[in-house]
Amino acid sequence: MAQFRFREPSIIPGFRVTFGFTLFWLFLIVIIPILGIYYRTFELDWAGFTSIVTGQRFLAALRLSFGASLLAAMFNVVIGVLIAWVLVRYTFPGRRIVDAIVDLPFALPTAVAGIALTAIYAPNGWVGSLFAPHGIRIAYTPIGIWIALVFIGLPFVVRSVQPVLEDFSTEIEEASATLGASRLRTIVGVMLPTLLPAILTGFALAFARAVGEYGSVIFIAGNIPRQTEILPLLIVFRLEEFNYAGAAAIAAVMLTVSFLILLAINLIQSWTYRRFGNV
Amino acid sequence: MSDAILHAGNTIDHERDFRSPVTESLAVRAVLISLTFVLLALFLVLPLVSVFAEALRMGFGQYLATFSNADARAAIWLTLLVAAIAVPCNLVFGVAAAWAIAKYRFRGRAFLISLIDLPFSVSPVVAGLVYILLLGSNSVIGGFLLENFNVRIIFAVPGVVLATIFVTFPFIARELIPLMQEQGTSEEEASISLGANGWQTFWYVTLPNVKWALLYGVLLCNARAMGEFGAVSVLSGKLRGETVTMPLQVELFYNEYAAVAAFSLASVLAGLALVTLVIKSWLEWRYADQLASGVRGH
Hints:
The complex is a heterodimer.
Chain A: H1 15-41, H2 46-53, H3 56-89, H4 95-101, H5 104-107, H6 110-121, H7 128-131, H8 142-167, H9 170-178, H10 183-212, H11 215-221, H12 231-240, H13 244-276
Chain B: H1 2-17, H2 26-55, H3 60-65, H4 70-102, H5 109-117, H6 124-135, H7 140-149, H8 157-167, H9 171-183, H10 186-193, H11 198-227, H12 230-236, H13 246-255, H14 259-286
Helix pairs in contact in B: 2-14, 4-8, 4-9, 4-11, 4-13, 6-8, 6-12, 8-12, 9-11, 10-11, 11-14, 13-14
Subunit structure (chain B): The complex is composed of two ATP-binding proteins (CysA), two transmembrane proteins (CysT and CysW) and a solute-binding protein (CysP).
Function (chain B): Part of the ABC transporter complex CysAWTP (TC 3.A.1.6.1) involved in sulfate/thiosulfate import. Probably responsible for the translocation of the substrate across the membrane.
Transmembrane segments (chain B): 26-53, 74-102, 122-146, 153-173, 257-279
């Protein structure tokens, strides 16, 4: 009978030291602090917890955070797939620069993005002043929040779809064309289903990032209670009131949602692996 | 002869009509490429340009004046200090984690990788909150440290450092792990068989194989460490000149309506982002084969 073995034997030294250090540092910096959130939430009794998560201000922030993130991630899917397609399939001058620019939201500090977007979309800004005469305000409204979330989530969809599209074999497209399918039908009926797992992963990553985003949103949001107040900001307000249990309860809700999204991404990826092999 | 002309004419017609079945017509391509340029210009380039435009709005003298402000200088120093602590911490962790995960086969490796990636899916504000709950002056550990050693972590520099380590935790490990898994263990096994010890094997065999991926990870880790806002903002307490990093000082200037000062300081961070992007693209272009395949961004 095969004996249970935690690891396969190896002549390479250093497993105990590196594995032990990895676990130690991981628990010290990440795991224990995160578990602390749930621990502090349990200090509240059930009535205390429900009064926080059914409060009008919390529910308004919840709706705004998830609604704006959903709309931003959906828009990111549309333009992300378009940009990935153009970058992989077409050659044009400046393609390498465009490719590099896509990562700007990863590299630009969020506070810098926040004040820059506010400057552009404020009623006297470059873009805001074009809309202001028509009575459309962008900064300090949910539209402004949506724009900041589109900015922050854009690279996720592009970078998820791009490698899959690069590996896509043109023979399949040729076969589809030979069998009489129009170009549009080939793209929608043959290519899109293959790209779908990558698109969903990009969507989930962009959505998860948008729900937790703070720096780029708070400047453009205006932060009016119940109107343009996002969930992370509500945590900051609870902290400023020294209401630690209240802050922990909101954080526990957000953490649980991020874990569910993470689980969904893993399920998508393992499903893709089973369905298509190594994509 | 007329046949030949007719034939040639046919060929030209035929070539003009022929279109590869696996691409779109010129018009569609032109529209899609233009759309990409417009979208990226509107959503990404415009904000970047506006940072520099707003910073220089009152002239170059006003721009430079920001950097003789004592608070701004202190913020720049603190940012450099925090990055100088946080990046090496994650460098050591990343190398150790990659060695343990990529060079051995044990149960639960995939789960361990997911745990290492966890900080990416936690909101920066929540990242700050976790340390306040754990180490704040009214918590068990924080109270103990304050009473017995007079050490403050929260609303002090150690808190800022901790927050930065948390948010940049996975960067280096996630660049190294896939690459070292692809490279396998045969070279290390050969080195050990020939009598090298573990340290020599790492230094002379493994490290040269992963040096560009390591640099790539350090680059991204550093950019995030210097630019982190949410987690640091929760933990710093915003004591001017003491616990305020550059992104926080940008916020303080901005909220005081010192727009030029805010954007001038922000322009330094934007410049850092641009330099990071240039080096990153260069590494991807020059050493694509020595970076983990398919790993980009984040």
